[in-house]
Structures are given as structure tokens and as C-alpha cells.
Specification:
The chain is built from 18 helices and nine strands. With 439 residues, the chain is mostly helical. The strands form four sheets. Strands 3-6-7 form a three-stranded antiparallel sheet. Helix 5 runs antiparallel to helix 6 and helix 5 runs parallel beside helix 12. The protein is globular and about 60 Å long. The structure holds (2R)-3-hydroxy-2-(alpha-D-mannopyranosyloxy)propanoic acid (2M8).
């Protein structure tokens, strides 16, 4: 068997082992439910093996869509063992949540339109059109919800109310905000008294993954506290925004939204449907306002505070994602590619690290503060290709695949050594290894 065929076979085994009937769990043990952007990346890989299963992955995610249009970041397994997880979120407190499944009450980066198009690419035209017709209403409702609820001032960018919505849970800009401005008094107290280890006893994640590869106890506590505050407001955005802890227009999320808007337009166009005027206008404004995230002093994009519009000047993997958005100028794309090449920033032996090497937050082991992830590499490769950086894209594709060949389908990898980290046999790593090896 050739090396490539062997890799594909092993990746397929991971996806089969994580198959939960109509969706794929990210990994056994740590992640027994369905997650939004995981399912999208998984479907992008599955389409090469089984188009039908890829479609079902997306449709099963849409079972969780709320009547207001939100696609939640998690759809829970109904297994009796996970009652506590469902209780934590209690989506039933919102009048908009679906009746037959329990979900979370927040969303995740809108990768859906991209996944729908990628699956469509694998179908003959008639089948593709009927697939697009089937999901277009859900996608339109989702994007309309994003604008209605998350861009309440009609300024163009959508805001996120919890770090989990970015998918980059403990990413430096959000954690910097948390520690400088947002830590609740009682967590501040625990921090001062160095009592945070006590909370570690209640964590489920560190039973599966070494503690130094996950977020700190204090960060975990703060994220769960923030989640509980949302639940107490019944996930009602007006009530949430009245006293919100987090309200950030996240760079990664908005980069992905811009691309999703493009893909949604492509879907509509190919079945000769017109998108609502209002939605098209909001999409256009997003592309325009996105440029306000550029900081001329440090020559890069940042997330910003929703209320004050203050840029959160802490670089992270999001710094490179405007490449994926695809609407920034070639000149600015060139600047980002220079950062990607720089070995003190985003260019270590096993790129792309989730925080630049010279960041005070950089830790090669800790989750979204340093390790290399397959999904963000996939987004960057896609952007590099569209901006004409074919060699950079090919090199990154190769180094990413090498990680899987030598170290398996880990959740994330040490960017300095390639060491596998986090959950083993992780679905999106396997799925995207398949997709990356198909070009
Ligand atoms: C991680 O997030 C979850 C919470 O949603 C967690 O920390 O338990 C993130 O890596 C996120 O991007 C991912 O979708 C999720 C499942 O793989 O895990």
C-alpha cells in the first residue's frame, strides 16, 4: 500500500470509529456530542468517501437549528450518561430552541455554507441543485439571525458573547480581555488566594487530556461561569447584551462569515434564487467594515470590542484568517504571508501555531495558545491558494499531512516538535487529512 493510501485508510477508520449514526463525534471520551464547525470540517472530508454521509452530517446538525435561525454550537447526544451536559445548557429555557433535541445556546464559526458547497462539488448538477434547494432556507435563516441578533447596531460586524463561539476557546485576545477586565470578583479572589487548583477537581476534560494541554483552571471556571450567566438570561440576546461579560467582534468569526456569505451567494446563484435584499446589504457592509479591524501601526487585523470599538491588540491564529475571508487587498495579504513566513511568528518547524511564537501567551502544549491545528491550517491553505500563493499553500499542505503521517490524527500538535496533543483519533484531523491529500 502506498503511504498515501495507508493514510487515507487510517483516516477512514477514525471517522468510522467516531460515527454516531447520523453524525460524527469529534473524539471518544472528551467530546461525545455534535459540534457545529467540527461537523462542517468532518463533512468536507467525508464527501470524498461517502457523499450521502456528508449530507447527513450537515442535516443532523440542522436538527438543532432554533426557530429564530440560530445554529447552535452543540447538539447533545440523548444518551442517559450525558444528562448532566444537557442540564448545563438547558436549551429548553429559550422559546426558540427545538423540541426534540437539546442544544447549547450559543453558536460557532459559520462554516456551514462552505461545507454545503464542498459537498455539492461532489455531486452531478441535478443532485447538487436539489441539495442546495434543500438547505438554502436554513442557511438564509442562519445568516439573517447572525445579523439580526449579533449586529444589533447594523454596523457590519457580528459580535460573539462567549469564547466558545469563536471555536478558539482560550485564544490570547479573549483571555487577555478576560484577565484584564472581565474576571468576576469571586474568581479574582480565588486567583489571589491561589485556590484555583480546587476547581480542577471538578473538571471532566482533564480526566482525558493532561491538564497542561487544556485551558487553566481559572480560565475553565470563568468560561463555565460566563455560560451560566447566558443561561440565566434564557439566551435572550437583549437581556444578555444588557449585562454582558463578553461582547467582541471576533476576527476569526467575521473572516469566516465573509467567506460563508460568498458561498451562500454562490449557492443561491446556482439555483437561480435571489437572497433577500436586506441580507445582501448587510453582507456588503461586513466586507467594508471588516477593514476597520486593520491597525496601521502594527500592520495587522485584530478583533475589537463591540461597544467601544477598541482593537484587542493581541495576535493569534485569527491574525492570518483574513486570507480565508478573501476580500482583503493583495497588498495586505502579502503582509500576512510575511508573518506566516517569519520563524519568530507563525513559521516554526510544524506550522501554523495558534499563537505567534513571540506572544507572551505562547505555549507549545496549551490548546489554542500555541499548538498547530488542522482546521486553521485548512482555512489558511484555502486562502493562500485564492490569493495566488500556490507554493506556500503546497508547502503548508505537505507539512500538515506529514504531521498526520508521522504522529496520527491528534486533536492538535506541538508546533516545535510535531508531538501529538489533546484527544487522539480526532475527527476533523482525519477528515481534513483526507481532503488535503486529494488535491
Ligand atoms: C473545543 O471546544 C469545546 C467547547 O465548545 C471544549 O473545549 O470542550 C474547541 O476546540 C472547539 O473549537 C471544538 O469545536 C470543540 C469540539 O472539538 O472543542
Amino acid at each position: 500500500m502506498s503511504e498515501n493510501a495507508d493514510l487515507l485508510e487510517r483516516a477512514k477508520t477514525v471517522l468510522d470509529d467516531n460515527d454516531h449514526g447520523h453524525y460524527t463525534i469529534p473524539a471518544h471520551g472528551l467530546y461525545p456530542h455534535q459540534w457545529l464547525w467540527d461537523s462542517c470540517f468532518i463533512a468536507i472530508g467525508l464527501r470524498h468517501l461517502d457523499v450521502e454521509r456528508a449530507k447527513i452530517e450537515i442535516l443532523s446538525l440542522l436538527r438543532g437549528q432554533w426557530t429564530n435561525g440560530m445554529v447552535p454550537h452543540m447538539v447533545f447526544s440523548d444518551d442517559a450518561r450525558f444528562r448532566q451536559d444537557r442540564e448545563t445548557w438547558r436549551s429548553w429555557v429559550s422559546p426558540f430552541s427545538p423540541d426534540d433535541v437539546v442544544t447549547s445556546g450559543i453558536t460557532q464559526p459559520p462554516m456551514l455554507a462552505e461545507a454545503v458547497v464542498r459537498i455539492g462539488e461532489k455531486m452531478p448538477p441535478a443532485e447538487r441543485h436539489s441539495w442546495y434547494r434543500q438547505v438554502l432556507p436554513n442557511l438564509v435563516a442562519y445568516h439573517e439571525w447572525l445579523y439580526a441578533e449579533r449586529d444589533p447596531h447594523g454596523e457590519g460586524l457580528v459580535l460573539q458573547i462567549h469564547p466558545w463561539e469563536t471555536g478558539l476557546d482560550n485564544t490570547p485576545p479573549w483571555m487577555a480581555e478576560l484577565h484584564h477586565h472581565l474576571l468576576p470578583w469571586w474568581i479574582r479572589g480565588l486567583k489571589k488566594l491561589k485556590l484555583d487548583h480546587v476547581t480542577g477537581l471538578f473538571r471532566r476534560d482533564t480526566r482525558f487530556v493532561p491538564a497542561e494541554q487544556r485551558y487553566s483552571n481559572l480560565d475553565a471556571l470563568a468560561l463555565f461561569d460566563a455560560q451560566k450567566r447566558l443561561r440565566r438570561k434564557n439566551y435572550d440576546i437583549n437581556a444578555v447584551l444588557d449585562h454582558t461579560l463578553f461582547a467582541i467582534e471576533d476576527l476569526a468569526f467575521n473572516s469566516i462569515l465573509i467567506r460563508a456569505n460568498e458561498q451562500l451567494k454562490n449557492i443561491a446563484k446556482s439555483i437561480r434564487k435571489t437572497l433577500p435584499e436586506g441580507l445582501l446589504a448587510r453582507m456588503e457592509l461586513t466586507t467594508k467594515t471588516f477593514e476597520e479591524l486593520w491597525d496601521p501601526y502594527t500592520s495587522q487585523y485584530y478583533s475589537r470590542d463591540f461597544i467601544t470599538h477598541r482593537l484587542l491588540k493581541e495576535p493569534s491564529i485569527a491574525t492570518l484568517l483574513p486570507l480565508y475571508a478573501g476580500t482583503i487587498s493583495q497588498e495586505r495579504a502579502d503582509v500576512l504571508v510575511k508573518m506566516l513566513e517569519n520563524e519568530h511568528l507563525f513559521g516554526p518547524a510544524y506550522p501554523v501555531p495558534s499563537a505567534p511564537l513571540e506572544s507572551p501567551y505562547f505555549d507549545p502544549l496549551r490548546y489554542w495558545q500555541g499548538p498547530t491545528w488542522f482546521n486553521t491550517n485548512w482555512l489558511i491553505i484555502d486562502g493562500l491558494e485564492r490569493y495566488g500563493f500556490k507554493d506556500h499553500a503546497a508547502a503548508l499542505r505537505e507539512s500538515t499531512l506529514e504531521l498526520a503521517e508521522h504522529h496520527g490524527f491528534a486533536e492538535y500538535f506541538n508546533p516545535l516538535t510535531g508531538e501529538p496533543l489533546g484527544a487522539p483519533n480526532f475527527s476533523w484531523t482525519a477528515a481534513l487529512a483526507i481532503d488535503l491529500s486529494k488535491k
